[in-house]
Records
---
Amino acid sequence: MSAPLLELKGVTKRFPGVLALSDVSLTVGTGEVVALIGENGAGKSTLMKILGGVHLADTGTIHFDGRPVAIHNVAEAIALGIGFIHQELNVLDNLDVAGNIFLGREPARGGRLGLIHRQEMDRRAEPYLRRLGLQVSPRRSLRELSIAQQQMVEIAKALSQNARLIIMDEPTSCLTLAETERLLATIKDLRADGVSVIYISHRLGEVKLCADRVVVLRDGKNVGTLEGDQIRHDAMVRLMVGRDLQSFYVHPKGTKRTAYFQVRQLRTRAHPQCRISFDAAAGEILGFAGLVGAGRSEMAQAVFGVDTPLEGEIRLEGKPVVIRSPRDAMARGIYLVPEDRRNTGLVTEMTVRENVTLPGLWRHATAGLIRYASEAEVAERQCAALNVKTPSIETQALNLSGGNQQKVVLAKWLALEPRVLIFDEPTRGIDVGAKAEIYRLMRDLAERGVALLMISSDMEEVLGVSDRVIVMHEGSVAGMLERDQCSEEAIMQLAVGKIGESVSS
Amino acid sequence: MKKEAGISILLVVLCAIVAIKNPRFLGAANLENMARLIGMFGIFSIGMGLVIITGGIDLSVGSVFALLGVMLVIMLREWHWFWAVAVLAVIAGTMTLGWFHGLLITRARMQPFIVTLCGLLFYRGLARYIAHDETMGFVNENFGPLRNLATGSVFGLPMPFVLLLVTAAVMWVVLHRSVYGRYLFAVGRNEEAARYSGINSRAIIASSYILAGALAGVSGILIAFYTNSISPSTHGNFYELYGIAAAVLGGCSLRGGEGSILGIVIGTALLQVLQNLVNLLGIDSSLNFAVMGAVILIGVLADELLSARRRSRKVLVAAGGNKSAG
């Protein structure tokens, strides 16, 4: 690695009233995988936006391939050979695979008619698909592909544009464990081919697996670089938060189990052939592990009444409850913190106050008219209790960071005294500091006697937070593990359906 | 509030221009007639606004006016129903149509545009068939207070205008102060998230069509008595577009989740001033729609440009704020 492929030196970027980046440097060698980590607001996305030409740096230089460059827009970045894979994929799901890869660069024929040369496009797409091990036809519609496959199509697109550096922003946040492994293997292949990768992720386990070097940002500054066997979990966390997180996961003090919340023979629309049964005790965090598509979210939606179950019995404190809509569930104190904060957890264009009070608005109303003072008081109290960082309760929820948005979703339900709280991917896309806060909140709730169900695809989280773990496979419960039986291997074996058919199905 | 301020300024400027060019604009007769029209158009425009706030639209209003006009004449003159019974029947009828639209939209998951477009065609045809495509009128009968509601005045204010003020006041409380109003906005912004917060989104959406139906029923009765005769092929033509234009000018977004009662009322007033302007400034009346179209376009465009500028300033500030918070 004599001459680095990309070299940023002394990059400073100031926004009105804030220094987003201060004298940041970053080098990426040819065929090197550099992980960029830091809490939300540390300046990672600003740095990437400078590389993508969205922002211009106030000071500092960018050298690409030894030449000084100035990037004014994404097209210029792509022309240089920089590809971007964003957390939210930029694919058009109404087009097919080849159409996406060659969008805007379709091979044409027919002269001025500009007809798309289909055969040529398919022919050119195939080598990229083969190289990435993506076994789909170039004619397949993107809509029919999984998120992981769509992401591969984006990588293929970047490669077809001769990308020499691919920037991946939280690429695994929507992937299953198996898909994540597949992506990490692809990154290894790319590196072997001399393609460089900047890998941005909150999942330190993955960073450890794939990065040659880890660059840590905090408050817009370089705070450290880790290489080789320095790349350890504790070292990364220490640099990111500037202190040790001894109590990252809060463990239970030991619970007495009584069947508090019982689900029996639940049949969901997504997996009509399977029946789910489990018990959750008051005061425990019951983890739900499994591959994406194992039916965990569908279970949660059935219990919360979003998707009426086909059949099944739900009991709370021994009494059967009938749930046909979220209102029924809410009347019993059963709440869901959904997977998709922006589309189902919050009405993002509404203010923090309006979001917090939305589910319990009748409590703040007299004769159908809203009492603003009562509303504001509860919103203020919840925001303070959960340490929501927002300029005011009148700020639109969309202006908050992911972690703070998640706290607002939580605030909605905590204001209504939960008895059973279901979390679906509670910390997806949330930075380390906010994660620790959310885990602490979950444990506090459990200690107050709430039964918590936590669906998570983050193995560290499942192992670190749960008192017991239920593993699901293709719509049914593959097995249940006590805390001392839990290990990554044990969970994976159940998740892929290797054993445990006899446990419950 | 910024949207209302912008359109209010436009309204005042237009009024000033017309008043200077033709002093008859400020004459009692002209003002009174304009207020009467604002009243009649404003009431159903508020209903349209509610539907638009939920992310829907109602294209059937004009045809509903023709149908209810024809039915009203038949009920009063052929069947000799007591006026109050006829009024209740008409309003119950328009609410039923709204409920039916709401049902198709929320249960059969059809698009509001399609459902109400079919309504536009269907009710117009039905009205013409029932009336044998002939003009029907109330002649000179009063039918209790009905004629007076459309053509009379109280304290010097035209009755329809007074009714609009009352309706607007009530609906302002409903939309901007009640739980139901908050639900309308929440459902219009994000139906899914509203559902996940325990709101019965379908019922809220359907109810907006029913409420709009009731307001259209009231407006429709006033309009029928104002015109005094109903020619089923033209009565109420394009009125739904007046309603939509008033709501949009007044700050309702067709994407849903935005709008205000005050804005809709000012939007209605602006449209009527524009109509009046064409007459008073001696502009060829065939240009009527062209003038309205141009002014609406310019108004909405100016608003877009101004709010885009506001947004870009806000984004910079917000970016700064987030950085310092994280």
Note: Chain B is about 75% helix and 0% strand.
---
Amino acid sequence: MNSLFEQEIARRNFLGSLVTGGATVAGLGAFVDPLAAAKLASNQKRMLVIRMMGGLSQLESWDPKPGTDTGGPYRAIPTSVPGIHISELLPHTAKQMHHLGLVRGINTKNGDHAKGTYMMMTGRHPMPGAEYPEIGAVVAKSMDTSDVSLPGHIKVAPNGTGARSADSAYLGPKYASMTIGGDKPLANSVRPTDLTDDAELARNQIRNLVNHQFARKRRSAETDAYVQSFEQAEELVKRADVFDLSKESEKDRQRYGSHDFGRQCLMARRLLENEITFVQIRHNDYDSHYENFNFHHEQLGEFDKPFATLISDLQESGMLDSTLVVVLSEFGRTPKINSRYGRDHWGNAWSVCLAGCGMQSGFAYGKTNDNGTEVIENEVDAGHLFHTYLKALGLRSTSKFEIGGRKFPIADPAFEPIQEILA
Amino acid sequence: MLLSSAVCRLSFIALCGFTAVLSTSFAASPPLHQRIDEIIAAGIVAPPTELADDAEFLRRIFLDLTGTIPSPEKARTFLKDVDPDKRIKLIDELLAKREHFQHLATRFDVWIMERRAEAHVKSPGWTKFLEESFATNKPYHQLIGEILAADGTDAKNREAARFYLDRLGEPNLITRDVGRLFFGQDLQCAQCHDHPNISDYLQRDYYGMFAFFGRTYLFQPDKKKPALLAEKAIGGGEFKSVFTDVEATSFPQVLHSKVVFPDPTVEPGEEYKVKPDPKDKKIQPIPKFSRRDQFAKAATESNNPAFNRNIANRLWAQMMGRGLVEPLDFHHASNPPSHPELLELLATEFATMNYDLRAFLRQLALTKTYQRKFEMPMQLTRQADDVKAKIEALKAEDARLMALSQASAEALGEAKEAWNAARKIAVVPEAALAVADKKRVAAAEAFTKSNDALKISTEARAKVVAKTLQGKADANLPKLEADVIAKQKAADVAKAALDTAIAETEKLKPPVDAEQKKVAAVTATLDAARKRYDDEKTGWKLAQRKLQDAEKLIEFADAVRESEPALDKAEQLAAELATVKRESEARSKLAAALKTAADSTQAASAQLIDDDDLVVAASVLGDRSQMARAKSDAVAKTLAAKKSEFDTAESVAEKLRENKATTLEALTDRWADAFAVGSFTQLTPEQLCLAMLQATGEDEKYVVAGDADFTKKLAAQEAAKAKPAPKPDPKKPAPVELKEADRERHVRDYVAVKIDATTKRFISLFGGEAGLPQTDFFATADQALFLANDGTVRNWLRPSGENLSGRLLKMEDTDALAEELYLSILTREPEPVELASVKDYLRARGEKKSEAIQELGWALLSSVEFRFKH
């Protein structure tokens, strides 16, 4: 009896180049047709979410009300779009306004960090006993086109090592986010030093043979997925550079700034360039119950330039057309200035900023009254925004996921997309 | 106390029932496992796969009953054993093992807690509570009864309260999870409205369940003290449909039960044993009538069919790889069981055997259904021919049942409309009555108040009158007289108002009763229509499934037959190509040899100029060489042509093979749904971890250490006995005396502690998201990276003492080595071809035997065969 090896080797020699189709035997290279990959890239859409943690003040950013009782000390400045003014704390962003859009009439009726985050990330109102997937998981699952690829749902945070989060609910852990740091490799993505190339090749070869042998007895979508996870792992090891920020040029690193948020923006660009479907980055410390104006001066001062640089880079490379960018918080901040020069939690009249794929640009949709205490035109809720993101990415936001015999609407059926701002 | 005596009573009744069954029907009907097999056989269109061989059975039963794979010694003993009853004996042996109790505890924990974070109850205590329950074979309904009755107050069974407390006492979450986990019904949609697509998921059912928990909340005024469950005495059960705006209130009612638990009538203000105090949050209110208390008994002791079906289905799924109802928590009329009759049988039998888990699992393990091979039958195409003969009959049955269920769907729609209409009419007098009743309550309160005031006035006057009688005149007397008269008047007015209010409510009652009677009548019609529709639809779905099974089998067989000529052609061409290739190689070799000979002769002849013979020879050889070259070229050409012909045929064949594999895969899924082929599921994270520890010999290391630890503790205890007893410390509990019988438990506890961190690592990578069902399979790159590059598994594979790699390293005979490797990891002997591969591999890795062994071990541990249960 010939051994599996001999049979396989004989078969390979015998059939020459023909043997590339045996799914479990062929290496990764066999699947990657460069032409097909290029075609995929041009259709591939992506999404970037920038979370302003703690609740960005709309009055110090997208919807300033200077000279009113609620306006605070900062001026409003003109932007590259005539008629749209934003806070003077965002001078670089103002120059990119013709690529951006603002939704100024958000009313989520909610001032709780956890609930607000939940609503903005899932597009649903919290309901006890029910869990819904975050936008990143929904997008990663909906856009999951190729079988072998890098993970589709990535969050960037300092010290991230590639651990999975619980944010995909019924879509399953495959679409849960991996949190990466950018300054160290993903967990277990570096081969141990005592494992030589030969040994690695040999042990995987025998693993493939054992799997090949077993596939004759029983094969299913599950066994295929398990085999594939090893190929994905191999791909991650090979492409570990994708997650390594030090591979970016010194010049770019300077342009984006050496602080954490600048690094995150550059990392976001890098990940999007590498076909990661969904990326989320964050900027901290907007929960300014005290000294709101000093805090926003400092934080937006850090935010403004790298954000504007990122938008401009994405625009110049042409990627903005296929990348949806959203800057959001869990809520806005009270028009009323409290006794400690702070602003408190406020979900009744606030703004987000959107740009790119599927969206119009240079717009301000929705309106608040003169001192920003209520929405007076085109009021929307978190659910409308969620539908809008999906529609902008070319998805039908009224469709359903079918999972394990159950149907789940991909977005809350009580809402619909904001048609007026979609391209 | 109350609960346990009730349980005793119930067990007694159940026991009587059981003996009655024994004496009458039991003698006549075959054991449960045979009845299961009969029902399964009836639902299969073609013969199922044969029984699994011993090795396949061994791995499966070990994983299912102990959560891990057997040691190689155990495997060897079992495989060699010639006792025809060895499978039965093994099942009984495993069911009595400590590992079985631990495994069941893990399964129940994952099912009931769904990997929710530890919040108010420590997880190890909770799993220990489960483990001990299984060790004593506590009846299932009693166990669940204890869990549902616990509120965290009693320190002795605080662990049992984890179900409620680690859901933070959230009433909607508890309602949903009780429905999902213990009744197999996810009523989440019904929280806001009747389910739009599922006829038996109703909002009134959801709120009937919710009413038990709507008053419950987490009580922890002092964060340093343990949290408890507290309960209010009012509210919980009111709802309004977001679809129809119809409002209603449900009283507590268990799903599928007709028994309603209305609140007993109490005077306003008298609802509590301990009243809540808005000023003192540290007082835990205790209602006189606890709705939640009613639930534990009502759910577990009423022989509720949904409660019984749920657990029967879950235990079935645990053993057979998939539930009769899937998803396990989504049992409803449009998602009927694959085998309704079987589910009914399992549910009733489990209840009849007094919810005896051990006996029930034993019956499942004894079935042929459980013991089938996981490979599809070999003669599928032949089977298809037999099925073809039956196809028309199957089609006719499908059409007949479809028509029936369509008619009953229409009837149901009409009944629903009638019910809604009746409710809408009934709401009007109900609302009027509610308003009047509110007025009545207010009038009653006013009357009580004025009566109290009159009493006070009367008493004050009486005192003064008494004094006057003693001769001490009081100037206040006239004022007091007047006050009494005024109070009397006020009381009379209040009484009159109360009488009017009572009369008003009485007047309004008859119309309400009349309307409610009408509603009751249409409710009965509605329930009947729903039942008919559900039954008929279930019947139709079954017929449909069987027909589709038949069609798919025929489709597969036809495709296989059609592809045969092309596959044969490819095979024939492959053989021809091989022949031509061999000839071509021979020809080419010959041509080369002749060329060499000709060239060297030519060279020699050039040196020996006068040797004519050599010249002739060189010339002849030159000719021959050229002829051979020409022949070789010609054959090479034929080879190229053959190769191209083969390539074309092979690419067609490859597509057909792939197509056959896909069709077979789909067919296998259908066969698995019908339980006609052995189950195939992933290992749970815990099973995967334990099996790897077992395979690599790591587990054994801890077992040996745990055993030594126990021996040491036992010796220390004996030594202490010899000394005079120290004065008992009243603060510490008296130490429990160890007995030799505790050894197994001690060792397993010891191992559990040692592997805890590793198990958690596996859970974080291979487990599902908290709060969601944990049964879905997924495979991600981080899992593969962990297996490939992390130190954990690689360290287990490093040769050390008697661990797997250590044993293999010492073996000189490669046959024995391969056998030990396969038996330890995959619980089977290697097939000849695999044996040869191992030898090849070891030879190829030459000197690096230790590395080679570790690589082989890793490859088998990372294989599909290891990752799944089959």
Note: The mean pLDDT of chain A is 88.
---
Amino acid sequence: MTLAALRAVLGGESKSVSVTEQSSRLTPDAFMSLTASILSVIAKLMAGSSVRWVDCQPDTCQRVYFANHTSHLDALVLWSSLPRNIRSLTRAVAAKDYWDKTAFRRYIAGSVNALLIDRENIKVHRSPVELMIQAIGDTHSLIVFPEGGRNATDEMGEFKSGLYYLGKKRPDLELVPVYIDNLNRVLPRGEFLPVPLLSCITIGPPMWLESGESKTEFLRRAREAVKRLKDI
Amino acid sequence: MTIEDLHFEPLLGLLQRADWLNEPTYWLVGVVIVALIVASVIGQTLKRQPENTVSPALLRTFNQRVRAWWMMFAILAAGLLLGPTCTIVLFGLVSFWALREFITMTPTRRGDHRTLFWVFFVFTPIQYLLVGVGSSFVKLESDSAVWWADTLGLRGVDLYGLYSIMIPVYASLYIPSRIALSGDARRFLERSAKIQFSLLICVYSLSYAPALMHLDLLTSKPAVGNSSLSTGDVTPPEAEDEETAEAESQTSTTRRPWKEGGQAGLLFYFVLIVQLSDVFQYAWGKLLGQRVIAPQINASRTWEGFVSGVLTTAIVGALLWWVTPFRIWEAACMAFVTAVMGSAGSMTMSAIKRDRGVTDTGTLVQGHAGVLDRIDSICFAAPVFFHLTRYFFSDFA
């Protein structure tokens, strides 16, 4: 864990988001949202996460939050740390091959309104980026992990091109970099039992695709934007 | 097997202490409430004064500290009032949180993950379970204690023998071997030491504070001098009474079971003394501080603050002797040792934080940095206070 984030976790601006259960009508939707509330409480207890908004405010405008990926908990914890009204408008992008496998996983993914994308079986005109744009319409925001898979090393992996095409096809979307610190110690790759350490989520200033910016240039800039948050 | 045989309730009823809360304890709690109210009033009054009377930064720190003391006091008092079981659970949760802060601050590697899981979810709960049961199987004060003792075949066994060595011996052997199993040899010794140390400080040492509840306290105080306390009159005996008491105690060195106060009071006294010693050392350091003890470690701790703070703590500790089984001079010595150990704890934790480049370790209580920052002195003082009390003021044979 970096010193900056350590200071934030241990001595800084933590923001506790209270989660209240919704009305107890016993519809499947109510169950789903109850599951979501419980999941986010558990995730927050386990990850002890503090959230920092740096040069960025919570907003219901359409955004793509892009973050480094080191743990299974990343999506859930990041999603849980958004304010409630924003959370209901935000969908995390997850791998269909994993989250569609069992009924339980499907239920979990459904309750947090995750957007399942097929990584293996990509069809023409149904590319992941197309699917994402279709799914968010003009109200929802996305959480993506441009590294593709979870990263086992300390160094962040190269970004895949999806983020670039998202920015190109929908230039109105705010692309918001997020750095997730210490979650890889809470639940590293290949482990199934979490260790309840304190983690830190830093949400940085939005960025856009510049005119005439090449794919590699943009992806490098986006990666730097996430990396920079590590030391703030 | 009927519902009664299942003994659900006993889990809660296992820990029953006859003299848990007594009148002197309530008086001490009252004194602390009054002191906190006075501190709050002073803080709020100074806040309304013109700027130049007192430095605003100092005042803000003071007000934050007072607020945090109220919170600490409320939590501890609630635990004590709800009974021994709640007190154990409370200290267990504090340990858990402190351990969380400590490990977060300390870099570990992937290979330590499963070891850490053991530390958090096995050793910590077991330590508090053992401390919680403590001497219940010897005392057999409740039906459930009898039932559990017979069921487990542990009648007459004091678990002190186990909880006083479980972490320093068994956990300390287990941790490096579990890390070795993970197959990652890099910085092996360092990683083992970090995890062992965090468990030792945050869990093992702190658990000695609630363990005080198991001691069969003895006192050398004359029974006559104290009868006034048990009838509710808490005004300290006159000075001449004390002199006669001293004279008496010199003629007869026999000790008698201490029935006038409760273990809750002794625990509260201990925590109070450690906190006071922090305050006094800080205050005297501000007023008289000249020679810094170790500038590389902590720039605000001075020899003047340390000596004056420890002596002041000893005096205040002596003045509160009526809540403990100690005579006045014994209370002064205990408070003295407690203050010295508390100071050692703060210095050690400062060194660790300085090494890691952080100033505080958490945010739970506003103005009081982390849980670990507040309890570091308690952690270091608790085992020494416990063992001194056990050896000199309890029937441990």
Note: Chain A touches chain B through 21 residues (CB under 8 Å).
